[in-house]
Amino acid sequence: MGYVLRVSCKCRENDVRIGGGFLDSEDRTLNSVRHGYFGSEAQKLVQNDESVTIDCDPVPYICEKCGNVVARKPYDLYRPKNGKEVSLEDEDDPVLIWKCAHKCPECHSLMMKLESDEDLPEMKCPRCGENYKTEITCFID
Ligand SMILES: [Zn+2]
Ligand SMILES: [Zn+2]
Predict the structure, then answer these.
(1) What separation in Å is there between the alpha carbon of 120 and the centre of ligand 2?
(2) How far, in Å, is the centroid of ligand 1 from the Cα of 18?
(3) DSSP E strands: which ranges in the chain?
(4) Is 66:106 a contact under the CB 8 Å cutoff?
(5) How many whole angstroms separate alpha carbon 24 and alpha carbon 39?
(6) What's this model's pTM, rounded to 2 decimal places?
(7) How do residues 9-63 score in pLDDT, each as one tens digit?
(8) Ligand nearest to the CA of 102
(9) Is 107 helix (H, G, I), strand (E, B) or coil?
């Protein structure tokens, strides 16, 4: 279950799709990492450690240069602190070992990851200086 969030400020309006209905599984994405699709650094981390997992849950990313907001699967790699299984729900357990860089589709600057779309109303658009307004426009499977 996911939803489309309309994120607006004085200078722009974006529809951002959060969660829901994605076809590629964690395992398949990890396989792409293993084959070097995300670069050699990430490839080595995954090849050397079976316990590494990848975060595929879309979250908002914000461009600090132009104020663009998009949803991206983070594709960050995590390793469990103890034991073999990682639970991404347990905030203290997985240790971030590799961060995937996401570039703004409009201005190609690096984008900043937000943990939740609930952070957006507290953030100001760098271009017009206004706080973002958010509104769920529809729910998706
Ligand atoms: Zn703005
Ligand atoms: Zn940008």
Answers:
(1) 16
(2) 20
(3) 2-8, 13-18, 53-54, 59-63, 69-72, 77-80, 94-98, 111-113, 133-140
(4) yes
(5) 19
(6) 0.84
(7) 999 999 998 876 555 678 899 999 999 999 999 999 999 888 898 988 888 999 9
(8) 2
(9) coil
Ligand nearest to the CA of 105: 2
CB 17 within 8 A of CB 70: no
Helices within the chain (DSSP H only): 26-34, 40-48
Please give the Cα distance from 48 to 34 (Å, whole number): 10
For residues 103 and 110, the answer to whether their CB atoms sit within 8 Å is yes
Which ligand sits nearest to residue 128's alpha carbon?
Answer: 1
- Cα separation, 91 vs 16, in Å, equals 24
Does position 100 have pLDDT exceeding 90, yes or no? yes
Q: What's the CA angle centered on 86, arms 74 and 112, to 5 degrees?
A: 20
> Which of 134, 103, 141 has the alpha carbon at shortest distance from 117?
134
Pick from 17, 10, 9, 1: nearest CA to 136: 17
User: What whole-number distance in Å separates Cα of residue 43 and Cα of residue 56?
Assistant: 17
Instruction: For residue 58, give the amino acid letter.
Output: P
